[in-house]
Amino acid sequence: MIDLDGYGIALLLGMLNTLKLSVYALAIGLVLGMAGAVSKMSGFRPLRVAADGVTTLVRGIPELLFVLAVYLGSSVVINNAAAWMGYEDYIEIDAFCAGIIALSVVFGAYATEVFRGAIQAVAQGQVEAARAFGMTRPMVFRRVVLPQMWRMALPGIGNLYMVLLKNTALLSVIGVQELMRNTVSAVGFTKKPFLFYLAASFLYLFLTSVNMAGIDWLESRAERGVKRGV
Length: 230
Description:
8 helices
């Protein structure tokens, strides 16, 4: 890679952290999204109301504001709780972990609607047939609903992951050493904004291109054996 006035390695390390953040947030967000979708379709009304309230709240707040709220708010809550238990020292919240939590919750809120739509798209007749064969609800979900739901949800989840990957740049405001944070630091020292922002753009483009290729591969794998037009 081009040396970039000695900051080439710093940008690569920032890109690696960006990838780590996105992968960790994706893994947690998928679980949260699935839990949210199941909750919204639950027959238990309080659970549905709670899931609706959480997803509406998270999707209605700008991502940057939510990141700051999680980072600063969690610090206040944890330190107040520690003080209540008699612990006097200040507890510092790790920005990397707080960033992952914030991105995971945001991703999960949007993934909830993707999963819910995909679950509803599974033919109800197949579910009823599986129940007629004596399958329990968890077995029906695992063997009938989940494989088909995943295929239909994959394009939407892939698009959300592309947004998630770029949203990692928001974590620079809380001090996470990801690609944008390292780029801004390099600009501050070298006074060459065009060079470093252009380099960061190419690195983001590289990450998104690789991930898009991976998503396309997953979609082609999921579509195996599926008759076109069905």
